[in-house]
Design a protein that fits this description.
Blueprint: E1 9-10, H1 16-21, E2 26-27, H2 36-47, H3 51-68, H4 75-83, H5 101-111
Parallel strand pairs: 1-2
Helix pairs in contact: 2-3, 3-5, 4-5
Amino acid sequence: MPGWSASASSGASRIISPLLALGADGGILASAHARTSEFARLTSLWRDDKAADARELGHRLAPLSLAMLAEPNPVVTKSVLRRLGEIPSPAVRLPLLPASLESTESALRAVV
């Protein structure tokens, strides 16, 4: 349609790189709180048509995305951000329960 345009974003961090490769404009990603600059760079690399660098960075970020979503969102993200000193409390509201130590430790390993 003349004069019509659309924009696409994603909230699924584990598939953000392929979606950006297909033309998505960006994402709203809980896991990006732990490595914000790298997720922003991923978007820029795809936008600047630097596919090889974007693929490599996307592959490096994938384990973090998977680890941060090992339990219902945002419990692992909040637990990790608390451990990193970014937020004052990892508390979540019912019916959510706090993240397990195992999931938190796994995500923290993926952050570094």
